[in-house]
Amino acid sequence: MKGRKRGRANQKLAATDRRLQLVMIAMNFIASKGFEGFRYQEVAKAAGINTGTLFYYFSNKEELIHGVMQHLREEFSKTPGRPVDKPTTALEELRLEFESVSDLLQNQPRLFLVHAEISLRGLRDPIIEKEVRNLDRLWKQHLIQLIEQGMAEGIFRSDVSSESTALSLISQFKGIGWHAMTGGLKRREIREAVMQIARQTEYWLTGKFDQVADSPKEIRASN
Q1: What angle (nearest 5°) sits at the alpha carbon of residue 171, between those of residues 118 and 212?
Q2: 22, 58 in Cβ contact below 8 A?
Q3: Burial of 174 (0-12, 13-18, 19+ CB in 10 A)
Q4: Pair 40, 75: CB distance under 8 Å
Q5: pLDDT digit string, tens, across residues 15-31
Q6: Could you tell me what percent of the chain has a pLDDT over 90?
């Protein structure tokens, strides 16, 4: 019985690994060729499998795109260096959010390129547009909850709109991502741009310029 359970667990893990492999191949095609150059059959070929096997994991191109969007959501939601031994305030969480964006832009810029390609395609494809809007909706909800948590803690001002602030942050993050891809920004320039937005956002939300972090890592090191 235990052997069968381990066997099923190994099969499930293998299937998960294969799906991730296919998603990563699809992302590479989108990043290098654009969405218009992305072909369902080419993903199978690059993975060394036939189209029938690809169909087993993703029954069509739309399902594969859904898998790509899920992966983007998981990667965008990761926060490097999150403390695990103590609870964090909304302000600390917000600083980690900026650090995460800075880290992704410097080390995984292709994520933003793939997101941009899919977003542009969504302007002409209602199915893909729904995927893009869902990702943005989840991102906005996360930021709204974070801002409202800070208000409840008495750290953030209560006279600002959490929704407008969240939309403003998303717009600025996307703007930096696009500029980093098209403007040839260096790693230092990306970090400084993100940290500048972090300073302005903290000042806007707290009204206290003297507490604004130069770097989330520096703040954690000093605590």
Answers
A1: 135
A2: yes
A3: middle
A4: no
A5: 678 999 999 999 999 99
A6: 57
What number of residues does the chain have? Answer: 223
d(CA 157, CA 179): 31
Distance CA 84, CA 99 (A): 16
Condensed to tens digits (0 to 9), the pLDDT of residues 25-74 reads: 999 999 999 888 889 999 999 999 999 999 999 999 999 999 999 999 99
On whether the pTM is more than 0.85, the answer is no
- Supply the DSSP symbol for 37: G
User: Could you tell me where the DSSP H helices lie in 153-186?
Assistant: 162-182
Q: How many Cβ atoms are within 10 Å of 75's Cβ, its own excluded?
A: 14
Residues 6+ apart with CB under 8 A from 96: 79, 80, 81, 82, 88, 216
